Amino acid sequence: MDRDPRLTNRGYDPPRDADSNAAVTTLAPAGPRWWRGLGGLTRSGSAVEALAWAFYDFANTIFSFAIVSFAMSLWAISFLGEGAGTFWFTAAVSVSVLLNAIVSPVLGAMSDRVGRRKPFLAVFTALCIGGTAVIGLVDIRLGLIAFAIANFAYQAALIYYDALLPDVARPIARGRLSGIGVALGYCGTLLVGVLLLAGLSTDADGSSTSATFVLVAGLFLVFAGPLFLLVRERERDGTRFSAGDALRSFGQLAQTVRNAREAPGLLRFIVARFFYTDPVNTAIAVMSAFAVHAVGFTEGQALQVLLILTVVAVIASFGWGVLSDRWGPRRTLFAVLGTWAIGLIILTFFLSAIPFLFAGALLGAGLGGVGVVDRLMLLRLSPPERVGEMFGLYGLVGKFSAVVGPLAYGIIVATLLDSLGRGAYQVAIASLFVLLLVGVWILRGVPEGRPENEEAAAEMLVEGMGR
């Protein structure tokens, strides 16, 4: 699961000015200071609306953690066996993300053309919830199809969720409200992890049951619901979306690539990102199955490890941010990728609990770092007047990288498991290390970029979101 699009498209928090402070005072309702502060973030002055929007992050992160990162791979393996289950799970992940990457330009253009966000968000949210609920109630083959549909819908819904932020938040407060959403997302991870560890909807050893999928679907529905009831979408003029509009959206993508070539180092950076995010996206999808079948943890122990790594990623994100301010994003990004390289090397050579925990801590720390630093690189390299366009290309490349890595991993494990046993997992991890090295090699030719460009590009992004 690549949460990066949500972090990049929600805006930037520039310094306050006198008019903005006056607006906070005028709009904020009476009440405790923290509640007034939330109200001051929104156009309507409603703290409830701010929380309703942010709690969607809480809801969909429950799905991405509990289903994509934990339960689904182990569920497939329990029915189909270790090799076949790994392959068909990774294939379902790759196909769902590939389809989303192909149609995402059309989905975004459709929303802009029609002028609505919430109806599209409602359709894809319902599709994700429904697909999740039936996974454990049908044959495993149908369950994998339901999972692929749910994962596709989860990715598609993010397009419209992110696009709602300018409707909810005042321009000066988009960064803060986005940060609240991300923080609540991590809280969603911890909540569902604790519920599963407590034995709610799992077996005595922590293994998933059909009730696991129903529980996650129910939590998604409960915490996503307030957005549809309480968030007000601004009225826009819209027109019908045609096949010609869809074709033009793909033509715009080709033009975006040509525009990226004109900025020194930008297209090279985006190509490098394809390779170095591939191991990140793959590890997110396969870590629980790797912990159980390659290292020897129980499912309950694997869940505990995933929760610990989530906490490590959150803490490390702050550290990488501070380091980026001191070193600059390019140097910091190399440090992040070096951390990942060490973790992958350890997993390639050692399949036991202590080395796995150490490597997992490094990978968790690096996961937070990639999310923080490479967006800053894009801001420094992008022409300010095209930053929104380049963020779209940046996100699309991230999705395509989430196609190749999991599928290659699944093919290697399924092909070599009978002959190499657990060594098949080591070969699969080594393949991720090779992809990471390719990304680092390409990244070497990318310039630092201009710090002043970062500020100008961020301001242009805010202006574009306000339209």
Structure report:
The chain has 467 residues and is mainly α. The chain has a single domain (4-12, 39-465), classed as MFS general substrate transporter like domains (Growth Hormone, Chain: A). The chain contains 17 helices and no strands. The protein has helices spanning 4-8, 18-27, 33-40, 47-80, 82-114, 118-134, 140-168, 174-197, 210-230, 243-262, 266-295, 299-327, 329-349, 353-381, 387-420, 423-443, 451-465. Helix 5 (82-114) runs parallel beside helix 7. The model is unreliable at 1-30 (pLDDT under 50).
How many domains would you count in the coordinates?
1
CATH architecture: Up-down Bundle
Which geometry do the CA atoms define?
globular
Largest sheet: none
Oligomer: single chain
Q: What fraction strand?
A: under 5%
Broad structural category = mainly alpha
Number of strands: 0
CA-atom Rg in angstroms: 22 Å
Q: What is the count of helical runs?
A: 17
Fraction of residues in H or I helices: over 70%
The span between the termini is 29 Å
Low-pLDDT parts are 1-30
The CATH superfamily is identified as: MFS general substrate transporter like domains
Give a brief rundown of this model.
The chain is mainly alpha-helical and 467 residues long. It has 17 helices and no strands.
Primary descriptors:
467 residues, mainly alpha, Growth Hormone, Chain: A, 81% helix
Layout of strands and helices, then pairs:
Blueprint: H1 4-8, H2 18-27, H3 33-40, H4 47-80, H5 82-114, H6 118-134, H7 140-168, H8 174-197, H9 210-230, H10 243-262, H11 266-295, H12 299-327, H13 329-349, H14 353-381, H15 387-420, H16 423-443, H17 451-465
Helix pairs in contact: 3-4, 4-5, 4-7, 4-8, 4-9, 4-11, 5-7, 5-10, 5-11, 5-15, 6-7, 6-9, 8-12, 11-12, 11-14, 11-15, 11-16, 12-13, 12-14, 13-14, 13-16, 14-17, 15-16
